Amino acid sequence: MLLLFGRTDRPDLGVTEIATALGLTKAAVHRILTALRNRDLITLDPRSRRYALGHAAVTLGRAYLTRTDVREMAAPELRYLSARTGETATLSLRRGDTRLYVDQVVPDQELRLEVTVGVPFPLHAGASSKTFLAYHLDGYLDRGRLEALTEHTVVDPARLLRELAVIRERGYATSHGEREPGAASIAAPVFDHDGHVAAVISVAGPAQRFHPGEDPAVTDQLLAVAARISAQLGFKSLK
């Protein structure tokens, strides 16, 4: 039942919804909810009679995240990826309708690409951003006009939706100057144990040298790294 609360997009659940989702009787659901409430894992809104995760569940989640720091897990893989490709390897996390770089490893080359860590970017511009959006659109296109960051940014919703479908099908996204002029990148999702995108890993470089998607070796290395980090987070398979 706790896992049900953890994976739903709703802020709270009713007894009937829980019973239907888990194939339990309402009486059984009430008994379990009572036990969880006694341990502050679940809370009850007395007005709506709906249930939500309690503060004890949040504490458990924080403890789990402390032990499974994606940035720490990805650090050696970023170094490996940058060394193998000769380009910049990055790690991004999503924050609402934006995503931000949280780490990067830059190659020892005079001509190279460096990203700005900690600055939020929109979800429709760039390979890493589009990767998040491809797996969790969540009404993004309904909340505002798509802003053009460069002349190559995809700002047509229909075209963007088609591209997101392709990203899901092949498992990675590419960008040629969509977020920053002269930059090119290829990105792949990192999944958590529930199959949600926990982070995105990418390889980026100057567009005059780096041509994402055209070198199978780079694509294979990126996907292999993303798969290894996903495995560390407990991800099995989408199939």
Q: Could you explain how this protein is built, in words?
A:
The chain is α+β, with helices and mostly antiparallel strands. It has 8 helices and 8 strands. It has helices at 2-7, 15-22, 26-38, 55-67, 70-85, 127-135, 157-170, 216-232, and strands at residues 42-45, 50-53, 88-95, 98-105, 120-122, 173-176, 183-191, 197-206. Strand 7 and strand 8 form a beta hairpin. The longest helix has 17 residues, at 216-232. The two termini are 23 Å apart. The mean pLDDT is 90.
Query: H/E order of the elements?
Result: HHHEEHHEEEHHEEEH
Span of the ends, CA to CA: 23 Å
Structural class category: alpha+beta
Strand order of the largest sheet: 5-4-3-8-7-6
**Helical percentage:** 40-55%
Which stretches are poorly predicted, pLDDT < 50 over at least 5 residues? none
By DSSP (H or I, 4+ residues per run), the number of helices equals 8
Biggest sheet descriptor: 6 strands, antiparallel
Report the C-alpha radius of gyration, rounded: 20 Å
Proportion of residues in β-strands: 15-25%
User: How many E strands?
Assistant: 8
Shape: elongated
Q: Quaternary state, please?
A: single chain
Task: Output mean pLDDT.
Answer: 90
